[in-house]
Every structure is written in structure tokens, then in C-alpha cells.
Hints:
Helix content is 15%, strand content 44%. It is α+β, with helices and mostly antiparallel strands. Strands 1, 2, 3, 4, 5, 6, 7, 8 and 9 form a nine-stranded mixed sheet that branches.
Amino acid sequence: MNRNAMYFALALLASLPGCKGQAGGPGAAQVVHGESGLAVIPLTITHAGQQHRFKVELAKSAFEQGKGLMFRTKLGPDEGMLFPMEPPRPASFWMRNTVIPLDLLFIAPGGRIANIAANAKPYDESQIKSLGPVGAVLELPGGRAAALGIVAGDTVSW
């Protein structure tokens, strides 16, 4: 098998729901979400010295970001989806085909939360916008940010 065919086969295998692949170097197991097939990474939000830990799906490609959490019927309290924005730019989201309410946390390039759109309404096609350029957007279950006291200015790391 030539090298390109081998890489294609490995990428295809890693994208299958429930499969686990390798990333990040020797011995670093990559967790893959069983429903989306996206990598799951740890993310921490620090609020008033307290850390809140999440496991979030990483939506990197334009296709992954376009689909986001559409059609999903559940999201655990410490789960979410992260949309990295490279280069940083103003972001605009909507809730088309999104079944569950979400909190959208717009993260400035330095890792601070710039603004939060709380409890975005399912299926609403109104634009939900950042207040300026962002380096990422984090979607959490609706109401989760308020329940944990997370506010603009808190820091996010992943």
C-alpha cells in the first residue's frame, strides 16, 4: 500500500463513530466522539479562581463547523463543542436545525470570554454575533454558563 493510500485509510478509520485513533505523538491516545466522529479534548474555564472542566468536541474544518451541534438531541452538562477561528475574526452563528438550547461563549484571541449568548433558542435563524474578533467559539448546554457563574472576562484554555 502506498503512503497516500495508507494515510487515507487511517484518516477514514479514525473518522468512524466510536473509533479511537492516535494523535499528539507516541502514546497519546485521541478520544473520538461516538456520534460526531470529532476529536474530544479537555477544556478549562477559570472563573474567580475556580476551574470548571469540560470535554469538548473540536470542530476544525469548515464542514465540521457548519454542521456543529445540528440535529443533536442531548449534550451532557460538562460537554460542548469548540470552534477554533484561525485567523481570529468576528463570528456569527445561528441555531438552524439545532434541537437543544445552547450557550455560545465567544472567546477573544487572548483566551478571555468576550461575550456570551445565553440559552440560544433551538431552530432560531437569527444571527448570534461576537462583539469583535474571536479566536474561538464554545457551545455549552443552554444555561450551563449561568449555572456555573461563568461571565465575560473569564479565561478559557484548551
